[in-house]
Amino acid sequence: MSVEIPVIETERLVLRAPRFEDLDAMCAFYAEPRSRFVGGPVDRSHVWRTLLRGAGHWQIRGYGIWHVIDRDSGEMCGFTGPLNHIEWPEPELAYSIFTQFEGRGYAYEAASAARAAAARHFGLTRLISLVDPGNDRSRALALRLGARFEREEMVMGQIAHIYRHPQIAGGDA
């Protein structure tokens, strides 16, 4: 089975399929303490499995995480996209921008584009975001994207705040 992963372009970013050459940038991110909100910090072999899991999600679900690339530098600066792991209550819009790229509006730009593409390409018009109660940046971005707090739920043994994104018709952001 082969899935064609669409490339999404914004003014400053390219959202594309996960690639082997992204491993070092991912390892740098997953070594940081702030990666705790997405399962880190972890070692290189665990990051390798995370990269494979991301690629596999596209194959099994038909959609998944895009790696976010800064157009100017060509560097991977984060990831975003719809996820629906077996433990998730429903499809999630996930997002994370690497520390050195924070403060530029990339998270909003990337997540907005991913949410619109999820609706347009995959029919995912109702997404949630699972936010760790201690992740103020993630909560702020969810709210900026128009999501509203809906409930608290245990997800994979941890408390998550569920933010509901507004329904998108036809891929409009």
UniProtKB/TrEMBL annotation:
Tree of life domain: Bacteria
Residue span, N-acetyltransferase domain: 13-168
Origin organism lineage: Bacteria, Pseudomonadati, Pseudomonadota, Alphaproteobacteria, Rhodobacterales
Cleaved signal peptide residues: none
The protein's name in its UniProt record: GNAT family N-acetyltransferase
Xref: PANTHER family: GNAT FAMILY, PUTATIVE (AFU_ORTHOLOGUE AFUA_3G00765)-RELATED-RELATED, N-ACETYLTRANSFERASE DOMAIN-CONTAINING PROTEIN
GO molecular function: acyltransferase activity, transferring groups other than amino-acyl groups
